[in-house]
Amino acid sequence: MASLRSVWLCSVILVLLWAAVHASNVLDLTKTEDYDNVVGKSTGVLVEFFAPWCGHCQRLAPEYEKLADAYAGKKDKVIIAKVDGDKNRDLANRINLQGFPTIKYFPPYSEVGIDYENERTAEAIAAFLTEKTHVQGNMEPPAEPQVVELTAETFDEVVMDPSLDVLVEFYAPWCGFCKRLAPVYEQVAQVFERDKECVIARIDVNDPANESIKKRFQVTSYPTLNFFPAGSNDKWPRPYLKERTLDDFVTFMNEKCGTFRNIDGTLSALAGRLPALDGLASRFYSAGEAARQMLIDETNKYVEDMRSTVVAPTKLAAAQYYTRVMDRVSRDGPDYVQRESKRLAKLLRKHADGVSTLAAEKVDEITRKSNVLAAFVNAKIGQAAERASSSLRMSPTASSAESTAHDEL
Predict the structure, then answer these.
(1) Which fold has domain 275-408?
(2) Residue in 10, 57, 198, 257 annotated catalytic
(3) What angle, rounded to 10 degrees, do the helices at 289-307 and 275-286 form?
(4) CA-to-CA distance for 271 and 377, rounded, in angstroms?
(5) CATH number for the domain formed by residue range(s) 148-257
(6) Residue pair 262/189 in contact by the 8 Å Cβ criterion
(7) Which of 284, 289, 273 is nearest to 377 (CA)?
């Protein structure tokens, strides 16, 4: 019997612990009785009216929880609450609810809510709440904005720089679509914040001071998104026509900038690699000494040709790393590639495990080097490149052979 009591007690403790860990600081006022006992009383209340099936509500949920956590110690001054307006239609109709999610602040002793109509981020809602209540939550300061804010004076300096790929949002502060885009656009900028040649920017063309930019690019709707590619100081915009989601923006900018970023800002397995040199690297790794020297010369020529053209510094640095690896293999033998790969992997693993800390730029650098080393030992790349090389010798159409090699990779 005592044993059963112990098991039961342990179960109760586990349930209580689970509840404590998963407890929410958002007060649920879906029941009309609960709502009437809180709203309109002595404490101000911020209420989110939501529906479980609403996608916008689902995206808002973690931000709203973050907000509630920041005000958890101020419940005597302001309450963060929610109402399932789909479940309690009577209450939704009572406040004349027009859509989901709707956020309203109800001052003390008032049943008339003040609509919140700004960005749906914890930081933006907290700023609104502080303005209305003069109560400051324990909100961590927001990260420094990564979107470059342009003006008529700075527009050409940034956008027309021939070394930069630039995505520009032409917006107006009052535009609802622009407000909804803002947090996504900032996320995109954060993904590419370490790629200095890949710029995410915006300009308020509703500002009279920027009227010349509005007319110059014939902006007639908001937001208008245009991409200005690198390579010329007389750029003309290409319209961005894809979906305005983080995934689509990142895919688009990767294609244009050649950056190989994942949506969390990390680099993919292709980052730092150049297709033209991947084939040379793989052939070099499996070649004899005489053939290796020819491949080194070919790689050095490729790098010198790059120096004479306008290329991104990261691309030139990547090409130079191929030559450095070839020199080390020539001097220390093929085992150098495995040894260096293991060393770099160990550094990344320690960083991921929290054993050591690397700057984000250093993580990128190590990832790019690891990716290049992987190309040296990829036999499939070498075989495809060898077939392409043979085709090139037999065919007068060089570009066709190179295209075939890429397809086979």
Answers:
(1) Endoplasmic reticulum protein erp29 (1.20.1150)
(2) 57
(3) 160
(4) 16
(5) 3.40.30.10
(6) no
(7) 284
Which DSSP string corresponds to 230-291? SS-SS---EE--S-SSHHHHHHHHHHHHT--B-TTS-B-TTTT--HHHHHHHHHHHHS-HHH
- Average model confidence (pLDDT) across the chain: 86
Q: Taking 80 as the threshold, does the pLDDT of residue 388 lie above it?
A: no
Helix intervals (H) in 134-270: 155-159, 176-191, 211-216, 246-257
Mean pLDDT of 44-62: 93
- Cβ neighbours for 398, distance < 8 A, ≥ 6 positions apart: 392
Are the folds of 148-257 and 275-408 the same?
no
Contact 282, 382 (CB under 8 A): yes
pLDDT in tens, 69-109: 999 999 999 999 999 999 999 999 999 999 999 999 999 99
Q: Is 54 a catalytic residue?
A: yes
Based on the residue annotation, tell me whether 257 is a catalytic residue of this protein.
no
Mean pLDDT for 151-174 is: 96
Among the listed residues 10, 175, 198, 257, the single catalytic one is 175
Helices of type H across 308-378:
313-332, 335-353, 360-376
Catalytic, 10? Answer: no
- The domain at 21-133 falls in which architecture? 3-Layer(aba) Sandwich (3.40)
b/e per residue 376-388 (b: at least 16 CB within 10 A): bbbeebbbbbbeb
* pLDDT tens for each residue of 341-380: 999 999 999 988 888 889 999 999 999 999 999 999 886 6
pLDDT at 242 over 70: yes
What residue spans define the domains of the chain? 21-133, 148-257, 275-408
Known catalytic membership, residue 198: no
Cis, bond preceding 275 (omega within 30 deg of 0): no
pLDDT at 384: 53
